[in-house]
Amino acid sequence: MLWKIIGVVAVVWIALTLVGALIKGLFPILVISVVVFGLYLLYKAISGSDNSSVTKL
């Protein structure tokens, strides 16, 4: 029974480590993409074009 508990704790620890590494690695990409998309929307709002649909990238 003790080995099962240790095994479950080890699996959970490894899973959280992997998820943490993925979040740490992908967070800068997420921030950059949000900034670029915001700048794109700002450009479209300022340009005053007739086609103001965001869905047509």
TrEMBL record:
Key word Transmembrane present: yes
Regions crossing the membrane: 5-23, 29-46
Entry keyword set: Membrane, Transmembrane, Transmembrane helix
Protein name from the UniProt record: DUF2207 domain-containing protein
